Amino acid sequence: MTVKNIWILTIISILLSASPSFAAPSQMHDTTRRLYDRVMDEFKHRDYEAALAGFRLFIELHGQSALAANAQYWIGECQYRMGRHREALKSFYEVVSRYPLSPKLAASTLKIGQIYTKLGDHEKARMMFDRIVDQYPDSSEAELARKAIEATASKDDPISQPSE
């Protein structure tokens, strides 16, 4: 059975089991969570194409749910891991702009900085890393941002460079 067939069956079962006009709110929440968890399983198994399609479907079906920001973040993460850095950049910016209260803001901002580093735009990368350190100083993302800033600073400092 192909990934496409699995998704078609998943969609049909979701629509049949929890049509918004017939499902109770708790039933919708359970269905939303089941779909999200199913897509996360694809991601954990490193099937990034399937996970990417699944998270896009999730947002299409459940764009107003509490998990929508997370799904958008994981879209970017799938793209990032597949080497689609410019697409990932747009997806992480989408989290920042559309979901300003999301717990994924710091992680999305960190990814934006990492992508700018990969793309060679060290000025924008530094701006993102500084933002994380300023806005989320005690987070694990801030620790990673500080390390990225230090790594960039040591590359730019001729004194720390080995002499030839």
The percentage helix is over 70%
CATH class of the largest domain: Mainly Alpha
Question: What average pLDDT do the residues reach?
Answer: 86
Q: Can you tell me the residue ranges where pLDDT is under 50 for at least 5 consecutive residues?
A: 15-22, 158-164
Reading the helices and strands in chain order gives: HHHHHHHH
Terminal CA distance reads 59 Å
Taken together, the total number of domains comes to 2
How can the largest sheet be summarized?
Answer: none
In CATH, the topology of the largest domain is named Methane Monooxygenase Hydroxylase, Chain G, domain 1
Give the helix/strand class.
mainly alpha
User: Judging from the principal axes of the Cα atoms, what is the shape?
Assistant: globular
The radius of gyration is: 19 Å
What's the total helix number?
8
Which second-level CATH architecture of the largest domain applies?
Up-down Bundle
